[in-house]
């Protein structure tokens, strides 16, 4: 848009001499504004904009030509600014914390999956790993696969006495150094089914592990993390952004997101950094196909006859097929997730959220930002339907 100075009025005694035309706001003025806004670490790197004509009132040059040329230059300038921002962020996030060999990290859920792989990765980086396993067999397997820097403890996150004992064990090992990292990774996904197939106990079984246990472990070790000005990494899920199925899993992950957000703000001035990991679908025990089938078959057989009649056998068969399709989408490369965890623990400038996996980045996360009606349509258009609505 080209803004021109107002025309001089003509007096009754005759026309007054026209004042010198004032320059209009053109691209050079806009570039000065953008240049001021862009002042920072990369201000000197910004390319100067080419000189552009300043449109004078009554100029013979077409306003459309100047406007089109100015818009092109402005978009180019903005593209350069965006590129420099991402370059700056990339360089900033590559800065690594010093003295990693002196730092302790406590990880829950290390029997298998993400926790097991993360313990091995951090061991290779030289950190001192305190790995919590649910079973002694899992702890032994991990110790055999790692160095003496990895120590294990048995932990059931649903039992307060087990958490208290593990917290005391951690305190004895870290001493006055404090705990640099806490990774809340332990979790389960089943029972999972339509909500009216489940009981209160089915919901609590998942929520007690994924949310209540996570909160209790965090609170029991928070003073040690605060002493080290360390990191808390909570494993959520992309299902903490978008609820796709019934049961306690999505509910618990929404709770993890809320707890992490509140904790991050409460610890804002303490030097403690909070990060959430939001994986898509990966091949772990949480997405085990056989366990899903057993869970679904068992719940179906226990259903009230009226509820079973409402859904119908076709719904059950279609739902079972959908679990097979879901398994085909699960990725085997767990390092896509554990690399995010490792970055959150070792980078001087960790992110608050990490979306792990291309399905999370390119499908589920964008889907969560869509208007509710549109997101519901896209999710449900191929979803099995109960028999009365077919």
List the helices and strands and how they pair.
Blueprint: H1 27-37, H2 63-93, E1 104-107, H3 113-125, E2 128-133, H4 136-144, E3 150-154, H5 160-174, E4 181-184, H6 200-228, E5 231-235, H7 248-266, E6 273-279, H8 289-301, H9 305-329, H10 335-346, E7 353-356, H11 358-368, H12 372-380
Parallel strand pairs: 1-2, 1-4, 2-3, 4-5, 5-6, 6-7
Order of helices and strands: HHEHEHEHEHEHEHHHEHH
CATH topology: Rossmann fold
The fourth-level CATH homologous superfamily is NAD(P)-binding Rossmann-like Domain
Helix/sheet category: alpha/beta
Spatially, the strands of the biggest sheet line up as: 3-2-1-4-5-6-7
CATH architecture: 3-Layer(aba) Sandwich
Which stretches are low in confidence, meaning pLDDT under 50 for 5 or more residues running?
1-12, 21-31, 41-47, 52-60
CATH class: Alpha Beta
Mean of pLDDT = 84
Portion in strands: 5-15%
Account of the protein in words:
- The protein is of the alpha/beta class and 390 residues long.
- The protein has a single domain, classed as NAD(P)-binding Rossmann-like Domain (Rossmann fold), CATH 3.40.50.
- Helices cover 51% and strands 9% of the residues.
- The protein contains 12 helices and 7 strands.
- It has a 7-stranded parallel sheet with strand order 3-2-1-4-5-6-7, sandwiched between helices.
- Helix 6 links the parallel strand 4 and strand 5.
- Helix 8 packs antiparallel against helix 9.
- The radius of gyration is 29 Å and the shape is globular.
- The N terminus is likely disordered.
């Amino acid at each position: 848009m080209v803004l021109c100075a107002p025309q001089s009025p003509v007096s009754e005694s005759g026309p007054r001499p026209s004042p010198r035309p004032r320059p209009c706001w053109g691209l050079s003025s806009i570039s000065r504004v953008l240049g001021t806004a862009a002042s920072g670490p990369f201000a000197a790197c910004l390319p100067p904009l080419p000189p552009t004509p300043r449109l004078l009132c009554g100029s013979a040059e077409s306003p459309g030509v100047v406007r089109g040329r100015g818009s092109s230059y402005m978009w180019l300038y903005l593209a350069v600014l965006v590129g420099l921002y991402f370059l700056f962020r990339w360089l900033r996030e590559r800065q690594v914390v010093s003295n990693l060999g002196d730092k302790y990290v406590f990880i829950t859920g290390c029997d298998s999956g993400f926790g097991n792989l993360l313990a091995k990765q951090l061991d290779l980086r030289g950190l001192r790993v305190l790995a919590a396993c649910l079973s002694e067999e899992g702890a032994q397997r991990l110790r055999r696969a790692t160095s003496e820097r990895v120590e294990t403890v048995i932990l059931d996150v649903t039992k307060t006495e087990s958490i208290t004992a593990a917290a005391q064990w951690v305190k004895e090992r870290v001493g006055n150094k404090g705990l640099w990292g806490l990774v809340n990774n332990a979790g389960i996904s089943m029972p999972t089914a339509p909500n009216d197939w489940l009981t209160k106990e089915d919901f609590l079984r998942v929520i007690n592990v994924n949310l209540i246990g996570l909160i209790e472990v965090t609170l029991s070790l928070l003073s040690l993390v605060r002493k080290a000005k360390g990191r808390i990494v909570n494993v959520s899920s992309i299902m903490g952004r978008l609820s796709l199925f019934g049961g306690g899993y999505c509910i618990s992950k929404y709770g993890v997101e809320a707890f992490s957000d509140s904790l991050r703000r409460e610890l804002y001035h303490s030097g403690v950094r909070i990060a959430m990991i939001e994986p898509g679908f990966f091949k772990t025990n949480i997405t085990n196909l056989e366990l899903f089938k057993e869970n679904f078959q068992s719940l179906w057989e226990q259903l009230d006859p009226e509820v079973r009649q409402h859904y119908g056998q076709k719904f059950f068969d279609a739902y079972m097929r959908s679990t097979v399709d879901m398994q085909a989408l699960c990725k085997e490369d767990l390092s896509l997730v554990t690399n995010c965890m490792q970055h959150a623990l070792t980078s001087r400038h960790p992110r608050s959220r990490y979306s792990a996996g291309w399905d999370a980045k390119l499908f589920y996360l964008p889907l969560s930002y869509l208007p509710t009606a549109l997101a519901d349509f896209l999710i449900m258009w191929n979803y099995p339907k109960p028999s009365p609505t077919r």
